[in-house]
Amino acid sequence: MSQSVSVQTSENRANRRQFERTSLSVAGRLMLPSGGEFPCDVEDISEGGIALHSQADGEIGDRVIVYLDRLGRFEGHLVRRFSGGFAIETRLHNNQRARLVERIELLKGRPKGQGIADLPQRALRRAPTSEEASEGARLTIDDGEEVACKVLDISLTGAHIKLRNRPKVGTHVTVGKTLGRVVRHTDEGIGVEFLSTGKLAS
Fold this sequence. Notes:
Elements: H1 10-18, E1 27-31, E2 37-45, E3 49-53, E4 63-68, E5 72-82, E6 85-90, H2 94-108, E7 125-126, H3 130-133, E8 137-141, E9 146-155, E10 158-162, E11 172-175, E12 178-185, E13 189-194
Antiparallel strand pairs: 1-2, 1-4, 2-3, 3-6, 4-5, 5-6, 7-9, 8-9, 8-11, 9-10, 10-13, 11-12, 12-13
């Protein structure tokens, strides 16, 4: 990794002052514009950005996609490099920000020795957004076919999808921008498990 370089725009400085950074031990994977995929670990995270330890040699301004275990998918631009990693600035929608703040607060309150994998599943579920819950939501099947669907229930690890023609169990699908796999059929449609170690959806 090259020497530390940063882009210190007034917006970047304001974001770093505005949001409290929390140190967390969370692993994940990231993707760079080149298509390369790399393991990473969080140094600290906030509503405005994430500092990551990784062998990936990104450049200032690169668009970076990150999938963190039990925290979900993040997208941002590389704004600062340091020895052994770099920081990205993220832009979260209101519902994303609320879920992240909830996860951070839960983790900060965990007893020593308990990490993110110990979080209760019920704390990870959320109601779908109005767009996801509408009949106009889209599901992409691994052959490239797009089908209309409705998200009945969603969490950071999976979703319950209502649709007419159910792909067979084991089929890879993309829900919005998140890659997953069909793990069961239900009366309404399918259960999808999101993949944290598979290729990240762009």
